[in-house]
Predict the structure.
Amino acid sequence: MRIRRLTMPAIRLKTPRAVIKAALILVAIVMPPAHAANATLIVPPFLPEAELRETYSPMMEFIAKHSGIDLTLQTYPNYLAYWQATLNGYDRALALDPAPIVDFRVQRQGWTVLAQLEDSTSQTLAVHQDNLIVDPAELVNKPLAVMPSPSLSTLVMYQIFPNSLQQPELVFKDSSRDVAEALFANEVEAVVIPTALMDGYPELVTVTRTEPLPSLGFSAAPDLSSDEQSRLREALLALSSTTEGQRLLEESGLKPVVPASNADYQGQAQLLEGTFGY
């Protein structure tokens, strides 16, 4: 009986290049997708926290979608807490600040301006329409509501009343909304609030209005890479250049976002002179 020897068919081994390619495909399938980068969006307490979150959350989602950088909103209970945190510095942050703080971050902490809200901003010294005050001098030694220093309302109040012996009695409130409401609660004779807020209070009348300053500016912390800063800048500007972004700004009650640089805020930090920590 003859025994037939069985032979196995030859197996052709893949080339090293093919093996590497297959391994890379397998790794891509098995490994989870990379997480988006994270950063903090800092907004000062010019409005109550709940109102800030409602206003800026859609913007944060838009920026994350267009930049690949997820943002977490950082708010503060009052301007004192906001200023102390500003002095301490931030890591991986995008900040929306009034002009003096923007320039402070640029000059003292190496931040970079990416964009700004369109137009300028100003503060208004206002009283109730039933209060027949037409001159700031009539408010000396009378209660006046402002947000704590270094809010713009307090900084410009010292310009309106430069003589420290002839100033109103300051009553500090946590937000511009709280400042305005103090007048209707008969806590004060007058208020200093952002001029843009006046439209929401038709019962208020203007005593005087400050000279305009550059509008709120977006700046990036120095530990965000140049690529991340560029992506954030493009996402911010897309808020005004795309239909989706324009609709978002309108629904949130925000001004258009326009290009800006460090030079647009140069010298604004001088308003902080005399402020603790400056």
